[in-house]
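Revision sheet: structure tokens.
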Amino acid sequence: MFKSISFVFVAVAAVSASIVPRQSVSTPIGTTITGGFATYYNQFGGFGACGQQNPDSALIVALQTQRYASSLCGQSVTVTNLNNGRVVTASIADQCPGCANANSLDLSIGAWEAIGESTADGSEVPINWVLNN
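Predicted:
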């Protein structure tokens, strides 16, 4: 009987925790966001969270889910690759639930290559970034 009650309690706690919404993180204009990582993703002809289709060559980024808000769609960010100093300015077009943390971005192939990275590496790089407008 005790095992059954314990199981029910644990199951209810697990379900309750999974439906708690993630706390959003604000993104102030002009503030340098540090401690993030960039990865890249393919468009595959799909629609991003902002409702647009973009080619892989487009200079776009996906914000980590805690930072994403539809009001940020189309705004520009400047991303700096901390490994080599290369910089790209890109537009927010999607959200990234798989990004490492709230300070991380997923870049289109075009933006990834603009910061001097190769898709053959398949890695992540440390970045800083700024919301421009």
